[in-house]
Amino acid sequence: MAIQPITGMMRRTLILDLSIALGIGFVFGNAFWYGYHMPRTNKRDDYYKKLEEHTYIEAGEASWERALGGRLCMHTDRTDRSPIESREQKQQQQQHAPDDGPGEQD
């Protein structure tokens, strides 16, 4: 009676090893991202937000958010108007402008 050869062990071992490696990598990657990176980034962002608030308070600005146009960056090229205010002003300008329809021209 002959013993049958063991087949498929290499493939099974390879799939098991890859699955375990990817699973452990995913777990530790998420642990790093949400346990270390995100809290540190949020802490840094809060620090710079407080720093900008303090800078605008010292400069005498009534509302630092309004002065920045609602954005937290010093090099913005936006105006103090929000997109909603801009849209309302555009609609008012269109209402006051004479409407020359496409039908009659002199």
From TrEMBL:
Coiled-coil annotated spans: none
UniProt region (Disordered), positions on chain: 75-106
Positions with biased composition (Basic and acidic residues): 75-90
Subcellular localization(s) per the UniProt record: Mitochondrion inner membrane
Any GO MF annotation of the entry: cytochrome-c oxidase activity
Principal location listed in the UniProt entry: mitochondrion
GO BP, sorted A to Z: mitochondrial electron transport, cytochrome c to oxygen
A GO CC annotation given for this chain: mitochondrial inner membrane
Segments traversing the membrane: 14-34
Name under which the protein is recorded: Cytochrome c oxidase polypeptide VIIA
Keywords: Membrane, Mitochondrion, Mitochondrion inner membrane, Transmembrane, Transmembrane helix
